[in-house]
Amino acid sequence: MFQSKLKTIILSISVTILAASLIFFPQESLEASRRGLNMWWKIVFPSLLPFFIVSELLIGFGVVRFIGVLLEPLMRPLFRVPGAGGFVWAMGLASGFPAGAKFTARLREEGQLTRIEAERLVSFTNSSNPLFIFGAVAVGFFHNAKLGIILALAHYLGNLSVGIVMRFYGGKSSKGTMEKHKKVTIRWAFSALHQTRLKDNRPIGQLLGDAVNSSIQTLLMVGGFIIIFSVINKILYLLHITAALGKVVEFLFSSLAFPEMLSIPFISGIFEITLGSQLTSSVQDATLLQQAMITSFILGFSGLSVQAQVASILAQTDIRFQPFFFARILQGIFASVFTLLFWNSVYLRLSDQERPTNALPVGFFGEGSWAYDTYQKMLEMGPLITIFSLTIYIGILFIRLKKARI
């Protein structure tokens, strides 16, 4: 009872301070809000919407069930999750946060995952997409194309390591379909696809409309979290709370021989990965290895902004958030360690190469590359895609409301 009352008091005071800060710092809050909005409608919305819509269709038509049957012999022994987790993992790697949570929650609603399996799966299927790592962080912030290789390698190896560690989570849970079906066949996979499609008997038009509605509603929620955490991060900086928390981190960094100037970027990254990565790249007193390790931790931890998005998605199911939060800490640590381990063998070797025939083509990752060009085109075309999609969403809602009144 006392803990409940204390939680109420803390939450009430925190929200009151936030509201008062918005009044005292209107200009700074507006700029932070614009920054979050720009990121959402230029990058996040147009990059995630196609993945969300197509994934809903694949689930509805039974394709994910088909893929799940075929991947069962791989995913079950390695991660102790059903084969459908392979689809979630692949889509999470390609599209980035919070796609893994979205698809995991969807499969849980479909009954293709137990709660423990869903908690294992969501812990390692949320990651930064390659476009963000190469286009925004490596080239945009550090102006160093080769750094993207080590950041991506550490990030995705850390992601894989988390999945292997989390396979032990939950103890001896149900062994799932592998106990019932010892041998995986194409015929069985097609049968599962057909039965899933028959079970979801919605017409194609309704299925497409539901996919658009569900996807845009999720992205609107994501946009709200991005904007509010952008403002919160700015408010914490203006109230010198970030600096105070940085003092605590400075002690840890000093023991690791890291510059104290990295403490504020680290704290900022704990709240929001983009700002934290950008601030880390601007610290002049740190070596590039130290900057890369901090950035790897920030990317692995994902930031409280992303974690709040995931918590909101998981709250609609019975999947618990605590395993996901623990996994984010693990991935941040793993990614930082992998950055250190592969620094000499990967990054320095690439940087020391002098022969053009042996060197990795910088044009593939640097300015003028597909990653950088795609990122820039997103910034230009993203708002138009977002406005067009929202217009379609409003049209679908209007038609359905009109039908409901008839």
UniProtKB/TrEMBL annotation:
Sorted UniProt keywords: Membrane, Transmembrane, Transmembrane helix
InterPro entries, per database record: Gate_dom (IPR011642), Spore_IM_YlbJ (IPR014226)
Residue ranges occupied by any Nucleoside transporter/FeoB GTPase Gate domain in the UniProt entry: 42-140, 219-315
Residues annotated as transmembrane: 9-27, 47-71, 83-101, 121-142, 149-169, 216-239, 251-271, 291-313, 325-343, 381-401
NCBIfam families to which the protein is assigned, alphabetical: spore_ylbJ
Protein name per its UniProtKB record: Sporulation integral membrane protein YlbJ
Phylogenetic placement of the source organism: Bacteria, Bacillati, Bacillota, Bacilli, Bacillales
